[in-house]
Write a structure and sequence with these properties.
By secondary structure, this protein is of the alpha+beta class. About 30% of the residues lie in helices and about 40% in strands.
């Protein structure tokens, strides 16, 4: 995996991967690198949830994230709370197992943050 991050002037950054796909960041007006990092924890785990639900009937899946950061530099994440929502006919226990496995084993992003207290809960919205 390769990438490049280029300063574009002011507070701007252009992040490009080896496939020439890009993200534009602005560390003052957002999205900042820390905001993107938090969202990528959610994105990585959400992929695990969607794949883990396989043949279940659902129409919408999202995760809400709430984090706390250290008050002093480096302002690392101290905690991340995630609430997973699924609209559809999905057993809550299954969803809980998938989320737990995501953070125990499969989500590469969240597993990089071993010193961060991560918690999660699930909500199934049935028709």
């Amino acid at each position: 995996m390769q990438g490049r991050v280029e300063w574009t002037g002011g507070n701007g950054l252009l992040c490009t991967n080896s496939n020439e796909q890009s993200l534009v960041l602005d560390w003052e007006d957002g999205p900042s690198p820390m905001q993107v990092t938090l969202q990528m924890i959610g994105a990585c785990s959400l992929v695990d949830v969607i794949v883990g639900l396989k043949d279940r009937q659902f129409t919408k899946v999202w995760v809400e994230l709430d984090s706390t950061r250290a008050e002093t530099t480096p302002r690392v994440f101290e905690s991340v709370k995630m609430i997973y929502h699924v609209e559809g006919d999905v057993p809550e226990k299954l969803l809980e197992r998938i989320v737990a496995k995501s953070h125990e084993k499969y989500c590469s992003v969240s597993n990089m943050f071993t010193e961060v207290r991560m918690t999660s809960s699930v909500v199934v919205h049935r028709d």
